[in-house]
Amino acid sequence: MRARRWSACAALTWGIALGGRTAAAEEAGPLRVAILPGAASDSVPPAIEASLRESVREGLRAGGAGLIESASTGGLLDDCGELQCLAALRERIGVAYVVRSSFAAIDRDYALHLDLIDTRDGAAVASFDDRCSLCGLAEMRARTEAGAEGLLAPLRVDAPAPSILAVATTPAGAEVTIDGEVIGAAPFERVMTPGRHRLEIRHPGHVGAVQEVSVVDGVRTELRVELTPTPTPKVCRLPGVLALAGGVPLVAGGIGLLAIDGRPRPLGCDPTASACAEFETTWSGAAALVGGAVLTTLGAVALHRLRKSRTGRARR
Prior knowledge:
Elements: E1 11-14, H1 18-26, E2 32-35, H2 46-62, E3 66-67, H3 83-93, E4 97-106, E5 109-118, E6 124-132, H4 137-151, E7 164-170, E8 175-178, E9 181-185, E10 188-191, E11 195-202, E12 209-215, E13 220-226, H5 238-260, H6 282-315
Parallel strand pairs: 2-3, 2-4, 7-13
Antiparallel strand pairs: 1-6, 4-5, 5-6, 7-10, 8-9, 8-11, 11-12
């Protein structure tokens, strides 16, 4: 098996200027790129050179470039190396960059050089150099394609990740207000501007909560809020019990007073007199009976309502 030697000088050199990044950010859609024909190499057979140039095309497509075919340029790509020609490509066809390639070979030792040229000023904004000793064509094509794809990597401007706030509450369905704006019922996720935000959370039957949260640029922030049920005031049984305790004896006493009304008093009867003194308890008995009935009713109603409210809370 034949040993394969790789050159230590296989390097990717990037010369990215600030203007190049700005131009890439301003481009809408894929970068419009054209490939300069270039002079034929004396050391590379035409068929192999054509195959390597096709690898350049495939690499640029893989990098997201919108290739402009030579036929659609009206001959502008032919011998286009001057700034005036590049400006014409940009103005007439919208070509943002052109790729200039050169190949050299001695037996099976290949050398490759690629330049990505800005059509605004003719400057090379990215370059790729590679040397491969004892390379087969398939291997050299793969390296050429990877190098062409890498030319566009520094020009990509990825969209920043959104800043997301995810809110969940216990119980669910709480109304959430953020910075004074009613957002809706939790749980939900919402894209937010980075910084501090004030949240107000409300739910019927629960104590409202106020939270401040810091949203970080490009980060998903989660907020979980557990609301406390509104405390129910304790209802004392003592008034009802006291009302019953006072009402029942009064009712019994009133009935007793009415029962003895008009009866002779045992201790107030004179044997020599023609008649004995009688109990006159009509009004006092009636008053005791009515008062006792009122107290008994109030006590019973109070205890019934207390029991009903406790049963309702237990069911909830």
